[in-house]
Design brief:
about 20% strand, Rossmann fold
Length: about 130
């Protein structure tokens, strides 16, 4: 049961960037700010879960190799905690089996690194469009 409503839900699209790579986080933050996203940041699995519980983001951009948990296990826990979040898994050392597992669990998308910026923008734009429709 969701008890904490996202205070920004009605105002803007909320995106949680769960990634330990500060350079990537900075690059992505600049892109998301330009698109009027409310941005949350986490660099560990524990932070990601805590931020999801508190803010219930519309989109989670999830590094599959966060400290404290592998991406697929964390994906399952995130979707169990808050099924309203779309989760895009970003894999540095991904495999086809992991991608299939992530999609079966409910990931909105699975992107391999190095990320193609056009493909990342497409994945984010799709989730934002679905949010606005819904």
């Amino acid at each position: 049961m969701e008890t904490n409503a996202n205070p920004h839900r009605n105002a803007v699209f909320t995106t949680l960037v769960a990634d330990a790579d500060l350079y990537f986080d900075s690059f992505l933050g600049d892109f998301l700010r330009a698109e009027d996203h409310f941005i949350l940041r986490a660099s560990t699995a524990a932070q990601t879960l805590a931020m999801t519980r508190e803010y219930m983001p519309d989109l989670i951009l999830l590094d599959n190799d966060l400290e404290g948990c592998d991406g697929v296990s964390l994906l399952a826990e995130l979707l169990l905690e808050h099924s309203g979040s779309a989760v895009v898994v970003m894999a540095g050392r991904g495999s086809i089996l992991e991608a299939v597992e992530a999609m079966k669990l409910g990931a909105a998308d699975y992107l391999e690194r190095p990320l193609n910026s056009a493909r990342l923008k497409q994945a984010i734009d799709l989730q934002k469009e679905l949010f606005l429709l819904g």
